[in-house]
Amino acid sequence: MKLDTSGLESFVPLSAPIDDLCPDLSAPPTFDLPRSADFDGFQKDAIQMVKPAKGTTTLAFIFKEGVMVAADSRASMGGYISSQTVKKIIEINPYMIGTMAGGAADCQFWHRNLGIKCRLHELANKRRISVAGASKLLANILYSYRGMGLSVGTMIAGWDETGPGLYYVDSEGGRLKGTRFSVGSGSPYAYGVLDNGYRYDMSVEEAAELARRAIYHATFRDAASGGVASVYYVGPSGWKKLSGDDVGELHFRYYPVAPSPTEQEMAEVSPA
Amino acid sequence: MARYDRAITVFSPDGHLFQVEYALEAVRKGNAAVGVRGTDTIVLGVEKKATPKLQDSRSVRKIVSLDNHIALACAGLKADARILINRARIECQSHRLTVEDPVTVEYITRYIAGLQQKYTQSGGVRPFGLSTLIVGFDPYTGVPALYQTDPSGTFSAWKANATGRNSNSMREFLEKNYKETSGQETVKLAIRALLEVVESGGKNIEIAVMTREKGLRQLEEAEIDAIVAEIEAEKAAAEAAKKAPSKEI
């Protein structure tokens, strides 16, 4: 079905020389349309099918002492848990880390590539690159691959001359500066705990505990998140891994099991 | 589309790149330019040839700014300069866009020098016929810097330097008389160096002063005349002191 766009016709010269510089303007401009009822929205389903869901929970926030970054460690393929021990916090250089959400290969490769670019910048300019600059480099690269199927939802956290820096960068080419981010399928749950407990002036231990609890609660409710809750801290002297706790153990730490009276009775009776 | 595969700048048997050396000759014929770095001020000065009566002198600015904190003066082929300056200005903005930070003086000097070098190693092109003096303040540390590039693509940092016509005499003068200066003293030093080779007077000299706070400022002819008068007075006083017999032994 060809749409008639003769109404859009512009003025046509009487003589129509046909060569590279002056294409024939006498025919009305037309273009093919897809053969379906809904030719505005038929592509949306196709895009949704290939758009990989980012099954993970990662979070990062800036507070008085620096940046706290935490993530789970589960990789899932649909309903199958392919790994419980994935490193989702990637070390770009001694003072900058990135989180992984989306395609594992994409995140790992492009973070490593970003590390290379940051080092080259240091060597050429005799000064470290800022977190703003590093995140912009990554965002520009991802933008140039926009629409080609990369799936990256990452947070770049670091400490530079201007202090702590936190940027969210994704494969759509978006880049946001902020103080609190959570990325992944478990992020709504993490945001609930994080936003509730957040205060700017926390100590490092308090902030680490908040991050740990937020990841734990996300893994509790979200099927695609689980494994180990890793917590990293980025301060003036660089990043440091603070803890890596199995979320199953965290559950019993937060909600210890007290034996009910009936269970206690049965335990006493059974040997007899 | 014709592809240029013949290089113009090729080595001579004894290791010279004659095209580059000829370009340096072109620089030596260009008007004199001087740059002096002080502790808080950097001064660029250029010789201004007599403007024809009908020419609008404001359209021939020889000292240009590349960004808010970087300025450039050059000696040599002015048409080549225009191209190089445009590319440098674009690079300054491109850097701001990609890393969200202004360029350092060293970065933009490296870029301009790299561009000049590329044209000594490409097919079908000749080198740029100009040497540049690039000045500015480091946007992070506030340290003033003065760099010079030449047609071969080399660059280095200087406390004070001169290029163009009679640059050797100016450099000799600067070597003899350079000391760490600030503010108006730096301006005077630059003008004194220029006056060694240029006819004295405000209409033969163009001076621009760069400070950390105010950026680049072109001095008015009247201001330059006033400073020149000061310098001449100082010179006359020094001469008189020399001639007068010294009474203390």
From TrEMBL, chain A:
<comment type="function">
    <text>The proteasome is a multicatalytic proteinase complex which is characterized by its ability to cleave peptides with Arg, Phe, Tyr, Leu, and Glu adjacent to the leaving group at neutral or slightly basic pH. The proteasome has an ATP-dependent proteolytic activity.</text>
</comment>
<keyword id="KW-0378">Hydrolase</keyword>
<dbReference type="InterPro" id="IPR029055">
    <property type="entry name" value="Ntn_hydrolases_N"/>
</dbReference>
<dbReference type="InterPro" id="IPR016050">
    <property type="entry name" value="Proteasome_bsu_CS"/>
</dbReference>
<comment type="subunit">
    <text>Component of the proteasome complex.</text>
</comment>
<protein>
    <recommendedName>
        <fullName>Proteasome subunit beta</fullName>
    </recommendedName>
</protein>
<keyword id="KW-0888">Threonine protease</keyword>
<dbReference type="InterPro" id="IPR001353">
    <property type="entry name" value="Proteasome_sua/b"/>
</dbReference>
<dbReference type="GO" id="GO:0051603">
    <property type="term" value="P:proteolysis involved in protein catabolic process"/>
</dbReference>
<dbReference type="GO" id="GO:0005634">
    <property type="term" value="C:nucleus"/>
</dbReference>
<comment type="similarity">
    <text>Belongs to the peptidase T1B family.</text>
</comment>
<dbReference type="GO" id="GO:0005737">
    <property type="term" value="C:cytoplasm"/>
</dbReference>
<dbReference type="Pfam" id="PF00227">
    <property type="entry name" value="Proteasome"/>
</dbReference>
<keyword id="KW-0647">Proteasome</keyword>
<keyword id="KW-0963">Cytoplasm</keyword>
<dbReference type="InterPro" id="IPR000243">
    <property type="entry name" value="Pept_T1A_subB"/>
</dbReference>
<dbReference type="GO" id="GO:0004298">
    <property type="term" value="F:threonine-type endopeptidase activity"/>
</dbReference>
<keyword id="KW-0539">Nucleus</keyword>
<keyword id="KW-0865">Zymogen</keyword>
<comment type="function">
    <text>Component of the proteasome, a multicatalytic proteinase complex which is characterized by its ability to cleave peptides with Arg, Phe, Tyr, Leu, and Glu adjacent to the leaving group at neutral or slightly basic pH. The proteasome has an ATP-dependent proteolytic activity.</text>
</comment>
<feature type="active site" description="Nucleophile">
    <location>
        <position position="56"/>
    </location>
</feature>
<dbReference type="GO" id="GO:0005839">
    <property type="term" value="C:proteasome core complex"/>
</dbReference>
TrEMBL record, chain B:
<dbReference type="InterPro" id="IPR029055">
    <property type="entry name" value="Ntn_hydrolases_N"/>
</dbReference>
<keyword id="KW-0963">Cytoplasm</keyword>
<comment type="subunit">
    <text>The 20S proteasome core is composed of 28 subunits that are arranged in four stacked rings, resulting in a barrel-shaped structure. The two end rings are each formed by seven alpha subunits, and the two central rings are each formed by seven beta subunits.</text>
</comment>
<feature type="domain" description="Proteasome alpha-type subunits">
    <location>
        <begin position="4"/>
        <end position="26"/>
    </location>
</feature>
<dbReference type="InterPro" id="IPR023332">
    <property type="entry name" value="Proteasome_alpha-type"/>
</dbReference>
<dbReference type="InterPro" id="IPR000426">
    <property type="entry name" value="Proteasome_asu_N"/>
</dbReference>
<keyword id="KW-0647">Proteasome</keyword>
<dbReference type="GO" id="GO:0006511">
    <property type="term" value="P:ubiquitin-dependent protein catabolic process"/>
</dbReference>
<dbReference type="GO" id="GO:0005634">
    <property type="term" value="C:nucleus"/>
</dbReference>
<dbReference type="Pfam" id="PF10584">
    <property type="entry name" value="Proteasome_A_N"/>
</dbReference>
<dbReference type="GO" id="GO:0005737">
    <property type="term" value="C:cytoplasm"/>
</dbReference>
<dbReference type="InterPro" id="IPR050115">
    <property type="entry name" value="Proteasome_alpha"/>
</dbReference>
<keyword id="KW-0539">Nucleus</keyword>
<dbReference type="GO" id="GO:0019773">
    <property type="term" value="C:proteasome core complex, alpha-subunit complex"/>
</dbReference>
<comment type="similarity">
    <text>Belongs to the peptidase T1A family.</text>
</comment>
<comment type="function">
    <text>The proteasome is a multicatalytic proteinase complex which is characterized by its ability to cleave peptides with Arg, Phe, Tyr, Leu, and Glu adjacent to the leaving group at neutral or slightly basic pH. The proteasome has an ATP-dependent proteolytic activity.</text>
</comment>
<protein>
    <recommendedName>
        <fullName>Proteasome subunit alpha type</fullName>
    </recommendedName>
</protein>
<dbReference type="Pfam" id="PF00227">
    <property type="entry name" value="Proteasome"/>
</dbReference>
<dbReference type="InterPro" id="IPR001353">
    <property type="entry name" value="Proteasome_sua/b"/>
</dbReference>
<comment type="subunit">
    <text>The 26S proteasome consists of a 20S proteasome core and two 19S regulatory subunits. The 20S proteasome core is composed of 28 subunits that are arranged in four stacked rings, resulting in a barrel-shaped structure. The two end rings are each formed by seven alpha subunits, and the two central rings are each formed by seven beta subunits. The catalytic chamber with the active sites is on the inside of the barrel.</text>
</comment>
